[in-house]
Amino acid sequence: MITHDLRLIADAIIDKKGENVVSLDLRAIDGAITDYFVVCDGSNTTQVGAIADNIAEKMALEGHAMYRSQGEGNNFWIIQDYGNIVVHIFLKEYRDFYRLEDLWADVPRKEYKERKKTVKKETK
After folding, report:
1. Which one, 14, 17, 82, 86, has least CB within 10 Å?
2. CA-to-CA distance for 28 and 23, rounded, in angstroms?
3. Would you kindly state where each structural domain of the chain is located, as residue ranges?
4. Superfamily of domain 2-101
5. What pLDDT digit, counting tens, does each position of 7-40 carry?
6. What's 53-101 look like in SS3?
């Protein structure tokens, strides 16, 4: 189930043209506040807000309530807490500055790209 949720979040990010989408598996870290971080960035504050809104919408449709969210006031760095997954949506320059992934460089990491769309051929 968690793999599905990670992919759902990644797809919601990619739908809004979010970039550099990664998940960090924190389960082996003693005292970690969550099981996974998902980290991405957007090129402007409008895009960062749109990414956050799309994740919230897609997760709600799947029945996942957000415990809390911070950062919507300025859209430089929005954090969404879903319990076992915490999403970090950065404005590009803030991600470069804070380098969150460097703090967790030794944990398993997965990168997400846009999935290829399959096109069905019409049969006559």
Report:
1. 17
2. 14
3. 2-101
4. Beta Polymerase, domain 2 (3.30.460.10)
5. 999 999 999 999 999 999 999 999 999 999 999 9
6. HHHHHHHHHCCCCCCEEECCCCCCEEEEECCCEEEEEEEHHHHHHHCHH
